[in-house]
């Protein structure tokens, strides 16, 4: 028996309308834990080179972890993965809320959706009963609206995943929505659901999860809550959630502004965490088992209308607020609400919209092509572009593919300010004075995403001690930046620790934000699963997953290698024009030195391809 797991993989074949449940292979649980690990292994094994991300042969994997659904702090995480329509390579995303625990209570650790339904449908799972129900009445409805309608139809016992019009129309950065404001936002997983004609997934579960030592596991869980409540960071984190970082990011010159043209916004205090509390907040909102509710559910009123919305989180503030220059928290929240209804990832949405605004400002695209004049700072223009993207109308059809593809079509130098890596838009930190964070974005397996390795704090903590001495202005204003010792090691370390939480199926914020010690996870993992693993042994499993997702990109992206790891030219050639980091940038020469060191320590060749002996060392040969 696999203690801690529900024990089954549910496979739903949309071509045949049949569902089957198979036991979780013990070696899969042993070598990959769950969550992100299950997603990576199952995708690698089941997808052939040449697979169309939006074709019926692609699959979407939904996976929980061994700690998901137990009475532990933050145990509500669910992981999603598919061949990404945004990058053509490995794609995954995760969300909190209550879906994952409910899937386990229905008897499944993992769900695989394959094939394509012949019409728009909803998958309904009620323990062993699985139905694929035609649901044309939901066509074109917003993700939040669809969830509300399904809740009224099925009842509160069901937990739901929905997609909006953007997912139906296969926008490359469409997101899956859950619990009226939680999203699996990155890499276009909702576009894959849309390509399969699935509008929603509903699950109800009433089963128990077997636990190795239930009594002691319950006692340990209670202890873990008490430890969380006693941490100094508990009282400072909870009131503002992720938005609490807004002022700090701006102060250190890492807040993206005007499509990452600069890294400081004069208006940051009007869109920070305090502004949310003072002007929007209705109540705090947490996920399953959460002692530190970071969600801020609020109400906003603007000239375009009013709405209830969860958020905005920091990333939405950074990209919709900073990058698009929406200078009032009410406007950021409303744009967030529009993204949620349309089913669009707010990170990519903000970067794509601000890219279009810069292209218009610089004459790359015209009012005739756009359908109107657009400018930074306009909520009306932001919403106009979001709606065009979701509907794939006019200029929106180009922007719906993301900034990499749009820049290839627009040309005229726009590639320099298409802010992405591997085709995935950059999340909310400007890095021209943060070598570690820059390397984190460059080498993230899914593309430019912060959650794999948040090295910015390390960059900043080191700056006064030694980084400032290593960054000196050269001739002609060019900056020569030497890579500080330890940066590469720190990035690699974080690329193992942060994704490990995604494999365990538990939120990392308790550990990363309030200082919850990792030995607690070792202890409770053993009590739940009966398997004794040190944190270092778990990190070794996380490293195996990292090697596998790199090899996944080698397998699926023609010509994949070093060139795919570079940031846009803006970050290598254009000095920051204003703010605390004025004049700073990181040259390609320095980035190459960092990549060389990173590749060597990863066991990859100079082109960033895992060596055969490296794959063999992790049992991937």
Write a brief caption for the model.
By secondary structure, the chain is of the alpha+beta class.
Features:
621 residues; alpha+beta; Aldehyde Ferredoxin Oxidoreductase,  A, domain 1; Aldehyde Ferredoxin Oxidoreductase Protein, subunit A, domain 2; Aldehyde Ferredoxin Oxidoreductase Protein, subunit A, domain 3; 3 domains; six-stranded mixed beta sheet; 26 helices; 42% helix
Description:
Helices cover 42% and strands 15% of the residues. The strands form six sheets. Strands 2-1-6-3-4-5 form a six-stranded mixed sheet. A four-stranded mixed sheet has the order 8-7-12-9. A three-stranded antiparallel sheet has the order 13-14-15. It starts with 7 loop residues before the first strand and ends with a helix. The protein is globular, with a radius of gyration of 23 Å. It is an alpha+beta fold. The longest helix has 22 residues, at 535-556. Helix 12 packs parallel to helix 15 and helix 18 crosses helix 20 (487-504).
Helix count equals: 26
| Rg calc | 23 Å
Q: Tell me the β content.
A: 5-15%
What gross morphology would you assign? Answer: globular
State the helicity in percent bands.
40-55%
What topology, given as strand order, has the largest sheet?
2-1-6-3-4-5
> How many individual domains?
3
Low-confidence stretches are 464-482
Structural class: alpha+beta
Gap between N and C termini? 28 Å
Instruction: Please give the oligomerization state of what you see.
Output: single chain
The CATH topology label of the largest domain is: Aldehyde Ferredoxin Oxidoreductase,  A, domain 1
CATH top-level class of the largest domain: Alpha Beta
Mean pLDDT: 94
CATH superfamily of the largest domain: Aldehyde ferredoxin oxidoreductase, N-terminal domain
Count of DSSP strands: 19
Characterize the biggest β-sheet. Answer: 6 strands, mixed
Second CATH tier, the architecture of the largest domain:
4-Layer Sandwich
């Amino acid at each position: 028996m696999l203690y801690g797991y529900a024990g089954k993989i549910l496979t739903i074949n949309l071509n045949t309308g049949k569902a089957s449940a198979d036991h979780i292979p013990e070696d899969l649980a042993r070598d990959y834990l769950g969550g992100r690990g299950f997603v990576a292994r199952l995708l690698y094994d089941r997808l052939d080179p040449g697979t169309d991300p939006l074709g019926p042969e692609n699959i979407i994997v939904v996976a929980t972890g061994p700690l998901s659904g137990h009475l532990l702090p933050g145990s509500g995480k669910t992981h999603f993965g598919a061949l990404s329509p945004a990058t053509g390579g490995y794609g995954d995303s995760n969300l909190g809320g209550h879906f994952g625990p409910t899937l386990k209570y229905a008897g499944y650790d993992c769900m695989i959706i394959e094939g394509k339904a012949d019409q728009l449908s909803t998958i309904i799972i009620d323990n062993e009963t699985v139905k694929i129900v035609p649901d044309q009445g939901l066509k074109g409805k917003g993700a939040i609206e669809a969830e509300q309608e399904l809740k009224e139809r099925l009842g509160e016992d069901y937990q739901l995943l929905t997609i909006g019009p953007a997912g139906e129309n296969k926008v490359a950065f469409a997101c899956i929505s859950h619990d009226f404001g939680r999203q699996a936002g990155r890499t276009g997983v909702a576009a894959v659901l849309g390509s399969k004609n699935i509008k929603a997934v509903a699950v109800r579960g009433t089963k128990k999860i077997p636990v190795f030592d239930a009594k002691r596991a319950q006692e340990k869980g209670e202890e873990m809550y008490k430890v969380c409540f006693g941490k100094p960071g508990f009282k400072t984190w909870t009131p503002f959630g992720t938005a609490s970082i807004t002022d700090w990011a701006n102060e250190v010159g890492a807040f993206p502004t005007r499509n990452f043209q600069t890294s400081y916004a004069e208006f940051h205090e009007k869109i920070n965490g305090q502004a949310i509390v003072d002007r929007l907040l209705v109540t705090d909102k947490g996920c399953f088992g959460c002692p530190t509710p970071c969600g801020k559910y609020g109400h906003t009123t603007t000239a375009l209308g009013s709405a209830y919305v969860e958020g905005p989180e920091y990333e939405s503030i950074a990209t919709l607020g900073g990058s698009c220059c929406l200078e009032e928290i009410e406007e950021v929240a409303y744009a967030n609400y529009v993204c949620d209804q349309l089913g669009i990832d707010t990170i990519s949405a903000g970067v794509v919209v601000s890219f279009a605004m810069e292209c218009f400002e610089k004459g790359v695209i015209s009012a005739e092509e756009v359908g109107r004049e657009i400018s930074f700072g306009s909520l009306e223009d932001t919403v106009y572009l979001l709606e065009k993207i979701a509907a794939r109308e006019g200029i929106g059809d180009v922007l719906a593919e993301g900034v990499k593809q749009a820049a290839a079509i627009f040309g005229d130098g726009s590639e320099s300010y298409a802010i992405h890596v591997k085709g995935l838009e950059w999340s909310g930190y400007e890095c021209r004075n943060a070598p570690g964070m820059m390397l984190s974005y460059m080498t993230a397996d899914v593309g430019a995403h912060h959650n794999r390795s948040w090295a910015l704090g390390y960059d900043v903590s080191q700056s006064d001690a030694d980084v400032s001495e290593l960054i000196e202005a050269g001739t002609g204003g060019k900056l020569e930046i030497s890579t500080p010792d330890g940066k590469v090691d720190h990035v690699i370390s974080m690329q193992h620790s942060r994704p490990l939480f995604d494999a365990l199926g538990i939120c990392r914020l308790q550990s990363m934000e309030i200082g919850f010690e990792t030995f607690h996870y070792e202890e409770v993992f053993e009590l739940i699963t009966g398997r004794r693993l040190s944190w270092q042994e778990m990190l070794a499993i996380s490293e195996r997953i990292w090697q596998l997702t790199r090899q996944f990109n080698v397998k699926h992206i023609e010509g994949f290698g070093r060139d795919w790891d570079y940031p846009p030219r803006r970050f290598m050639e254009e000095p920051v024009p204003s703010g605390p980091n004025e004049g700073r940038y990181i040259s390609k020469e320095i980035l190459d030195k960092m990549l060389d060191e990173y590749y060597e320590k990863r066991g990859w060749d100079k082109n960033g391809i895992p060596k055969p002996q490296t794959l063999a060392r992790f049992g991937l040969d």
